[in-house]
Amino acid sequence: MSARIVLFDLGHVVLDWQPLRLYRDMFETEAEAEAFLRDVCNMDWHIHNDLGVPMAENAARLIAQYPHYDDQIQAWQTRWLDMFEG
Fold it and tell me: What's the whole-model pTM score?
């Protein structure tokens, strides 16, 4: 019998995943980026992606709440590779 391995999650498991890496480039100060990650694209929101909610649907809900952060919210999907190192 051969072993089968399924890798469910890369971030903080196999690779160093820090959303702040991406958002440092999108805000004028690191404090603004940290506030965005704390108050808008936070882990309470992100967990829905991991639970299978389509990213477009999850992002649309957040954009409806924070339309002035449309570009930053969309970047979670379009620039997610910028969050990784290693």
Answer: 0.80
